[in-house]
Amino acid sequence: MFNQPTALRSVLNPAYLEWALSKQYDMGTWEECLFWLRGLNDTYRVRTSSGYYILRIYRAEITEEDVQYELSLLSALKSTLGSSVHTDIGEYIEKKDHTRYTMLDAAEGKRVAVMFRYIEGAENNLEDEESCYTFGQSAAELHKTMDQVVVELPRYELDTKFLIDEPLERILNYVGKSSEAALFLNAFTQTLKERIATLSSQSLDFGLCHGDMHGNNNAFQQGKQFIHYDFEWAAKGWRAYDLAQVKARKRQSDERKAALWDAIMAGYRSVRSFSTQDENAVDLFIIARRFWVMGLDVAFIESDTGALDYGTDWLDSFIDEFRDTGMVS
């Protein structure tokens, strides 16, 4: 029983962040710290006498070990990529003492703060074949580089436990394990896992993945290079899952999707192989990703979004979407 005020998720005051962090970095005099974006984590845009930077305050559920893995991966990728033609990554900035992050006290507990370089450029919506071909090359270069790096830290995998079992448990606890929706979701996820198991037995490409390869995280372009950032979900998994998030982009017109996807595949295969079996698995992983997103919705209801918009309409929308796959009658 709680006998004093507590918080599940706070927004840290920019003035506090300037006080706590400004002297820790060699990046000029702080002139502005602006709360920029509330997403899974909190993002602040910092302006100093030397330019703009991005400050990420991770949510309390992200552990110090999680951040250590992400930043170690970024260091390894940056070193291995070198002067890649089509690909670069968002870099973090070390502090004056050469450490990578700061642990901050917040109302809900410890939160990790990391400073990143500000990425100039513009998001490419991948609405033409040339852009899609180049993006395919960049995604392949990223995967090729990930095949070469080693991060000797513990990490989960983007397997069916992560994509299906753990989200299912959260969803069932929310909607009720004896509800009609629960009966359908149990049958649906069992079939989904069986189909993934069948495909994965065909030697699908499995290795380090970005884990969240969509929209702003990967389609930001500087010149001929795509800049990949936000590696929070990076882990070993099926490369078809990584690319499924690209194929499922909603900003492309339905009439152009097939041609644009073919261009992405052509660009990708100009750099590294991607088998017919891998490509055939992409649509299945689009479905798995959508189920994972449903579980992510539930994970944030209590601490962030509230239950108002996650009632019957939300549930029915996902159920209808999964029924439309034809996997369960």
Compile the SSE list and pairings.
Elements: H1 14-21, E1 30-38, E2 42-48, E3 51-57, H2 64-81, E4 87-89, E5 102-106, E6 109-117, E7 122-123, H3 129-146, E8 157-158, H4 160-175, H5 180-200, E9 206-209, H6 215-218, E10 220-222, E11 225-228, E12 235-238, H7 239-247, H8 257-269, H9 276-305, H10 312-323
Parallel strand pairs: 4-11, 8-12
Antiparallel strand pairs: 1-2, 2-3, 3-6, 5-6, 7-10, 9-12, 10-11
Helix pairs in contact: 3-8, 4-5, 4-9, 5-9, 5-10, 7-9
Describe the overall structure.
The protein has 329 residues and is of the alpha+beta class. It contains ten helices and twelve strands. It has helices at 14-21, 64-81, 129-146, 160-175, 180-200, 215-218, 239-247, 257-269, 276-305, 312-323; strands at residues 30-38, 42-48, 51-57, 87-89, 102-106, 109-117, 122-123, 157-158, 206-209, 220-222, 225-228, 235-238. The strands form three sheets. Strands 1-2-3-6-5 form a five-stranded antiparallel beta sheet, with helices on one face. It has a four-stranded mixed beta sheet with strand order 4-11-10-7. Strands 8-12-9 form a three-stranded mixed beta sheet. A hairpin with a 3-residue loop joins strand 1 (30-38) and strand 2. Helix 5 (180-200) runs antiparallel to helix 9 (276-305). The termini are far apart. The relative contact order is 0.13. The model has no long low-confidence stretch (mean pLDDT 95).
